[in-house]
Amino acid sequence: MSTDARIVPAASLIPADAPFPKAAKVALGMPQLRKNLAHATGTIRAKRANVAGELDDWERLRDTASAIKADVQHRLPELAIEFERNATAAGATVHWARDAQEANEIAARIVREAGADEVVKVKSMATQEIELNEHFEAHGLKAFETDLAELIVQLAEDKPSHILVPAIHYNRTQIRDIFTQSMGDAPSGLTDEPAALAEAARLHLRRRFLSAKVAVSGANFAVAETGSLVVVESEGNGRMCLTMPETLISIVGLEKLLPRFGDLEVFMQLLPRSSTGERMNPYTSVWTGSREGDGPRDVHVILLDNGRTGVLADEVGRQALSCIRCSACLNVCPVYERTGGHAYGHVYPGPIGAILAPQLEPGRHDDLPYASSLCGACYEVCPVKINIPEVLVHLRQQGPHEAGEKAAMGAAKAVMARPRLWRAALKAARFGSMPWRRKGFLRRLPWPGSRWTVSRDLPVPPKEDFRDWWKERQR
Amino acid sequence: MSGAREEILARMRRALEGAGEAPVPPREYRRALDAGVDITAMLIDRLVDYKANVHHGLASIPAALAGAKRVVVPADLPAEWRLGGAEFVADEGLSTADLDGMDAVLTGCAAAVAVSGTIMLDTGAAQGRRAITLVPDHHVVVVRAEQIVGHLAEALPMLDRTAPQTWISGPSATSDIELQRVEGVHGPRRLKVVLL
To answer: Does the predicted TM-score (pTM) go above 0.90?
Structure first.
């Protein structure tokens, strides 16, 4: 039954530090990865389209969500202070962290003060972004992921490849093999039935949940008006972490703020339908500070900047802070569907990653805005209407351009500005491309044209151009 | 510490220099279902879609408990709901181990949303603290007719906003394996809804 094939973590094969084109090429050469991705993204696309289509006011909800997020960005300082005041009044301790290091240090200190050396974790992009698990490990603390997909990734010693489903690049049989090889207490004769795999995860984590002293979470929303945090999940691992331990640490990016509790009526319609394609996710937890006799007594919130205020300063780019991490843009992206998440070399992959990563870490990931065909499918599905193509083009303009590219563009500009020269150039191109005429596309040009054709085809210039055709017609 | 707070606030204010007025969000989306929609039928349809079981009337509580021997209940659960042969254990600070030994939990709720099949708990009357509806593997929840609303926007005002809340849409599930929904992970694997 068991294949006993040792699962090689995909992230170990795809070089995270390599430029996107190089990493993408490696990923494209992995047929099983591509098959798994195509299957999973295809499934979720259909589900999303169904449930989004059920709401006759979907577009109006998107408009409102987009405007609420823009409002939040404009009033971020006052909303952050309002959140702090209300959460503190309800018994939470609010911390502020300028960067990853500071957030990790605060979290580690709270864990130690609670007399613990391990934590259970709710799936959180913020903690991945700041590499909290790695920081804990380096300082003698252990973080146990409890979300099923995160658990799979952690057991495989791999890295997440998707915002919502970090193990999207594994199929059920591979997951069974990972459990059998690395879980330690996997049931013998474990099959690759999803229900059996879920049961194995339940047994594996049950005792840990019921005895954990400290939990670490992120938050999907932070409501300024009430000081409440919201976590949206499916399995109940979130509820376990948010309810059972004595100490709870939530690491929350500043952009997660919402002005009013009532705003949840907009976002809780958009988020589940856009992410897992469900009318509503199985469990949503809302908590406000601490409550006597119910849940953690020691409640901490770490408000995280880590580059966000830099993104806020860019008038065009700041809309990336509207992202609610639904991952609909990944699932529809023709690039992501083929390369998967590891090739992007950042915790935020896909279209949203291509505009977020280079802004959060300026000077790095300048290649990511080019990891797109600008087809616009991401903008169409985005529940908060982030104009991703607009930001991609904006970042391309701002990013570095090589001398060669500048020279080529300068030459093109000079030619295109002079009609006679332009016509002559077209003629030359038609003549020069004669040998390829019948093939329809130029697939491989000599340098410097090879810089283009290495990853794209070029249509052969037509036999006659529009002007000649028009002249002929007029006769 | 406070240095970080002041510095982040200063960064935000600097970033927003010249950003202009905040937009006023339009609120033209739907806040209720059309008149005439049978919200109870819709709620049942959604619950069944999530693989929750639906029962009707107080008399169906023993069937919903399905042979559970020890059932934890909030201390303020109405006496007339404690039906059938089970031993009902009122939660007055039960330990986690005690909760783990329970076969089921029986509670009420704060609201139920038809359009998404969502049962909302806010630790109010007949609901108890969060742990009792989480640790037992089998949750039976009683929904009164007047607690059912069509739309999420109608349900939010019915909640105690700053009390701990759990919004439940079906039994525990995961979509983490090939993005197909599978019921039953860490939360209660059986959810039974008794409509009054």
So the answer is: yes
Q: A154 CA to chain B: closest CA distance, Å?
A: 14
* Chain B residue closest in CA terms to A63: B26
Give the range of the structural domain holding residue A254, as residue numbers without chain letter. Answer: 58-304
Say which CATH number the domain at A117 has. Answer: 3.40.50.10420
Same-domain check for residues A225 and A96: yes
Contact list in B for residue A81 (CB cut-off 8 A) is: 9
Q: Report how many Cβ contacts below 8 Å link chain A to chain B.
A: 254
A201/A189 Cα distance (integer angstroms): 15
Instruction: Say whether A210 and B135 touch across the interface (CB within 8 A).
Output: yes
What is the residue extent of each domain of chain B?
34-195
Tell me the per-residue pLDDT of A33-49, one tens digit each, with 9 for 90 and over. 999 999 999 999 999 99
Mean pLDDT across A212-218: 97
Examine the fold and report which residue of A304, A336, A368 is the final residue of a domain before the chain moves on: A304
What ipTM does the predicted assembly reach? 0.97
Note whether residue A278 is domain-resident.
Answer: yes
Q: Measure in Å the smallest separation between the Cα of A310 and chain B Cα atoms.
A: 7
Q: Report the C-alpha gap between A242 and A121 in whole angstroms.
A: 9
B33 pLDDT band, cuts 50/70/90, is: very high
Picking from A280, A304, A328, the residue at the C-terminal end of a domain is A304
pLDDT band at A1 (very low <50, low <70, confident <90, very high): very low
Beta strands in chain B (DSSP E): 53-56, 70-74, 87-91, 104-107, 111-113, 118-121, 138-143, 148-149, 165-168, 173-174, 182-183, 190-195
* Residue B82 C-alpha, separation from nearest chain A C-alpha, in angstroms: 24
Q: Which CATH class is domain B34-195?
A: alpha beta
DSSP B15-64: HTTT--PPPPPP--S--SPPTT--HHHHHHHHHHHTT-EEEESGGGHHHH
